[in-house]
């Protein structure tokens, strides 16, 4: 059994991890940590756990000492010290935040206004995009779990970039996220009367996920890739829909694209390339670890439109983190993650 601990269990992504890990046969949850709820049962705060998991929330130090595999689900800028402890004590560490995703400190400084204080740790970090970096993840001890928007976008573009089927190196991407993406803290934008029956873009071409998206797409393409990324806030709890517009090389047919996507993804349990004509819809990935991708062709302008959908809390956070753990421990990658979305 893997002795697992969660730091930040009182947050949305942390408590989603707890919900999923309770169904994982190879995991023993030995400690859960919450800054504001220490000494209280988690079921007091989140009643869906009543009688199922009434574990008492402990301090972050308790989690670090008791567990061998530590998940941190905290606002960015807080995880380095936990990763340092894990590194010094031969424990594995998966960060659901953004502190171990960017290769260049300069990008972290520019987009997060923070420095890397434990620089040597960042040489060990592996970007936990499971379907792409599986071999590196197997050997890793520190994982930067990908951001929710970047997960939907990078998986959507991977086969195309790997095969060099794009004409240009600049993509326009618009993504829409449910409000749980913003976490549990109250804000004007996510207040019910404000976001309900509304729909609007935010942080247009300035969102902090932009360097992460460009970094990973550039690695896939072995070339510099640039994006104009515009996120939107959807008045639903969960789910992300990313729509990506691509100019295709002149000699590429739409049928080539379909073939390549199936070649890359048909063996991947969590990635479903939909039949031509179907449109990926967040309803059918909610509460699941699937990423659904649909491919569409604008024949008038020889453009490809990729629609990629995930549940931001599962494939975009807790589910992908567990998939990473499964790979690190060399157990079946789908373990604890085979749930299917409700149909309505
Ligand atoms: N929501 C999402 O869809 C996704 C979130 N993430 C990332 O996961 C991380 C957590 O996000 P999310 O769960 O949404 O956020 P929440 O705001 O819901 O939760 C934040 C958690 O961090 C804890 N926390 C806050 N400040 C401190 C502090 N100074 N010291 C210790 N603990 C602290 C909170 O504890 P307490 O409440 O007890 O004070 C809470 O458990 C973030 O980095 C986020 O970017 C990643 C992918 C998707
Ligand atoms: C709707 C919403 O507000 N979404 C968040 C992104 C989700 C998130 O938590 O970001 P990470 O994946 O980097 O952890 C935002 O725009 O900041």
Concise structural overview:
With 344 residues, the protein is of the alpha/beta class.
The average pLDDT is: 97
CATH architecture of the largest domain: 2-Layer Sandwich
The neighbouring-strand order within the major sheet is 3-2-1-4-5-7-6
Low-confidence stretches: none
Number of strands: 14
The domain count comes to 2
| Element order: H for helix, E for strand | EHEHEHEHEHHEHEHEHEHEEHEEEH
Q: What is the overall silhouette?
A: globular
* Helical fraction: 25-40%
CATH class category name of the largest domain: Alpha Beta
Compute the CA-based radius of gyration.
20 Å
Cα separation of the termini: 35 Å
- The name of the CATH superfamily of the largest domain reads Dihydrodipicolinate Reductase, domain 2
Protein name: N-acetyl-gamma-glutamyl-phosphate reductase
Keywords: Amino-acid biosynthesis, Arginine biosynthesis, Cytoplasm, NADP, Oxidoreductase
Pathway: Amino-acid biosynthesis; L-arginine biosynthesis; N(2)-acetyl-L-ornithine from L-glutamate: step 3/4
Pfam families: Semialdhyde_dh, Semialdhyde_dhC_1
Notes on the protein architecture:
This protein is an alpha/beta fold. The chain has 2 domains: 2-145 and 315-328, Rossmann fold (3-Layer(aba) Sandwich), CATH 3.40.50; 149-312, Dihydrodipicolinate Reductase, domain 2, CATH 3.30.360.10. 33% of the residues lie in helices and 22% in strands. It contains 12 helices and 14 strands. It has helices at residues 12-21, 42-45, 60-66, 80-88, 105-112, 119-124, 130-139, 148-162, 192-195, 210-221, 254-265, 314-328; strands at 2-7, 27-33, 57-58, 69-72, 92-95, 125-127, 142-144, 170-177, 200-201, 226-233, 240-247, 271-273, 291-298, 303-310. It has a 7-stranded parallel β-sheet with strand order 3-2-1-4-5-7-6, with helices on both faces. The protein has a 7-stranded mixed β-sheet with strand order 9-10-8-11-14-13-12. The longest helix has 15 residues, at 148-162. The radius of gyration is 20 Å and the shape is globular. Bound molecules: NADPH dihydro-nicotinamide-adenine-dinucleotide phosphate and N-acetyl-L-glutamyl 5-phosphate (X2W). NADPH dihydro-nicotinamide-adenine-dinucleotide phosphate (NDP) is lined by residues 8, 10-14, 34-37, 73-76, 78, 96-98, 147-148, 180-181, 183-185, 312-313, 316-317. Its main location: cytoplasm. Keywords: Amino-acid biosynthesis, Arginine biosynthesis, Cytoplasm, NADP, Oxidoreductase. It catalyses: N-acetyl-L-glutamate 5-semialdehyde + phosphate + NADP(+) = N-acetyl-L-glutamyl 5-phosphate + NADPH + H(+). InterPro entries: AGPR, AGPR_AS, AGPR_dimerisation_dom, AGPR_type-1, NAD(P)-bd_dom_sf, Semialdehyde_DH_NAD-bd. It comes from Coprobacillus cateniformis.
């Amino acid at each position: 059994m893997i002795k697992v601990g969660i730091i930040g269990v009182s947050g949305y992504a942390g408590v989603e991890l707890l919900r999923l890990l309770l169904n994982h046969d190879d995991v023993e949850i030995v400690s859960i940590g919450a800054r504001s709820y220490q000494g209280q049962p988690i079921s007091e705060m989140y009643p869906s756990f009543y009688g199922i998991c009434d574990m008492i929330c402990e301090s972050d130090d308790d989690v670090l000492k008791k567990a061998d595999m530590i998940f941190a689900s905290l606002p960015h800028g807080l995880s380095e010290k936990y990763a340092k402890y894990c590194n010094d004590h031969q424990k594995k560490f998966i960060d659901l935040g953004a502190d171990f995703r960017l290769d260049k400190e300069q990008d972290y400084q520019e987009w997060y206004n923070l420095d890397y204080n434990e620089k040597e740790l960042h040489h060990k970090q592996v970007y936990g995009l499971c379907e792409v970096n599986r071999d590196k993840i197997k050997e890793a001890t520190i994982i930067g779990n990908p951001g929710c928007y970047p997960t939907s976008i990078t998986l959507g573009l991977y086969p195309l970039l790997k095969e060099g089927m794009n004409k240009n190196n600049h993509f326009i991407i618009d993504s829409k996220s449910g409000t749980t993406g913003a976490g549990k803290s109250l804000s004007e934008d996510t207040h019910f009367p404000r976001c309900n029956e509304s729909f609007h873009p935010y942080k247009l071409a300035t969102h902090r996920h932009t360097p992460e998206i460009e970094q990973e797409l550039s690695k896939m393409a072995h070339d510099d890739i640039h994006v104009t990324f515009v996120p939107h806030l959807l008045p639903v709890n969960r789910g992300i829909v990313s729509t990506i517009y691509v100019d295709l090389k002149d000699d590429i047919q739409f049928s080539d694209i379909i073939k390549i996507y199936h070649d890359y993804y048909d063996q991947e349990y969590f990635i479903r390339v939909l039949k031509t004509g179907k449109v990926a819809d967040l309803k059918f990935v909610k509460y699941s670890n699937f990423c659904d991708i649909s491919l569409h062709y604008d024949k008038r302008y020889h453009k490809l439109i990729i629609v990629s959908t995930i549940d931001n809390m599962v494939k975009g956070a807790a589910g992908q983190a567990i998939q990473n753990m499964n790979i690190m421990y060399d157990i079946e990658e789908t373990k604890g993650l085979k749930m299917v979305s409700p149909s309505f």
